[in-house]
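So, can you check this record?

>
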Amino acid sequence: MSREGDWMCPACQHLNFKKRDPCQRCSCPKNATAAEVSFQRTEALMPGDWYCGGLNCGAHNYASRVSCYRCGALKDYCGYGAGMLASAGYAYDAIPGWKSGDWICTRSIELRPEMAVFFRRFAKSVATAVAFGSQPKSTITGIRFGTLAAVSAGISSYYYFSSPNLVYLDQLNEDATPKFALNPDKWIEFKLQDKVEASHNTQLFRFSFDPNLKLGLDVASCIITRAPKQNDADGQTKYVIRPYTPISDPDAKGYFDLLIKVYPEGNMSQHFASLKPGDVVEVKGPIEKLKYSPNMKKHIGMIAGGTGITPMLQLIDAIVKNPDDNTQVFYTVDKPTNDWHGGTGYISKDMVVKGLPSPSDDILILVCGPPGLMNHISGDKAKDRSQGELTGVLKEIGFTENMVFKF
C-alpha cells in the first residue's frame, strides 16, 4: 500500500515517491508511452543485468546479484535478459487482477519443479473467482505453465496441482515464512530504495523488504536503528543507536518510510543523509510506545512540533480509517506566508484551550517535539525515559499526569 501520489514505474515496476520523475531505478518517465516503456525496459539493462522471472515479480537486478533483490528467486533458475522476455512467458490478459502484458515464467518450473507451489496458489484464486462469477466476460480456455496446465473450470483448476509432494512443500513454505519483516530480538538489514528532499533540512527515506510481508509495526510504536561509529581500544565496533517512527501505513507491504530532520551535528541523521540507494541500515523492533485501540478514550488531543509529528501520523492514520470519527486539525506556523489563514506563532496556552478538549479522566493529550516545545507544553521526559513530572501549559490549564502521554 503506497501513499497518495506514489506511482509504479511501467517499465521496471519500481514504486516511486510522488515527487520523483523519472523513475528512480530505470529513469523511465512517469507518464511514458508504450514505446518508451518497451525501449526503457531494454535500455535499463547493463551487461549481465537480468529480470526476475518469479511469479508477479519481474524486478530488474544488477549483474552482481545471484538472487532477486525483491522476491529472492535464484538467477540461474528464473533470470532473463531483456531479449528473452517475450519468448519466456505466456500472456494472461483475461486473468482477474493481472495487467495486460504481464507474463509467467515457464522456465522456472521446468528447472525448479517446487516453483509449482506458487502457481498452485494462483490457480486456486483464479478458480475461486470463476466459481463465484467474478471472472470477466472473456473466457479463459487454458493457461500453460511450462509442462503444467491449469484449465479454469470452477474449483477443479486448484486440484490440478494437488499432488502430495506439492501439498507438503506448500505447507512447509507457509510454516517457515516469517509473517513480519521486523524482529524485536535481532538486527535486520533493510535496503534504502529511494530518498527525496521533503524540505531544506528534512529528507524522506524509503526502505524495502520482502513485498509479501508487512513491517510488523503496531500503533503506536517505533523502531530503533544503528550505524557503526568507530572501533574502541579493543577493536570492537561502537554504534550510534537512535529510535525513529515510520510514517508509512503499518499495513503496507514491502516498504517503510522514515521522515528525518538532518542536524549538522547529528551523528545518526548525518549517517542517513549520506546513504545512497542500495545502502542498508540495521533495524530492530518494534518498540511499543503507546498501545492504541479504537475508542480507548472519549477524546484524544495531540500537540506536535517538527519531526515530532511522526508518531502522531501513526495514530492519525489509524483514527481516520474510522469514517465516523470526528477529527479536527489546527496547524500553526512561525513564519506565515501572505496567503496563510491558519494559526501563527508558537503554540500558546490560548491555542491549547481553544483547540483541545478540557481536562477530564476520559481524555488523553499526546505530546511530541523538540526540547523547547516539550518544556513549554508538558515538561520533557525524565532522564530514565519515563514520563516524568508534568509541567508547562498543560499543568497550568488543569491537566494531570494520567491525562498526558509524552512520546
User: Anything to note?
Assistant: Residues 45-176 form one domain. The longest strand covers residues 188-199.
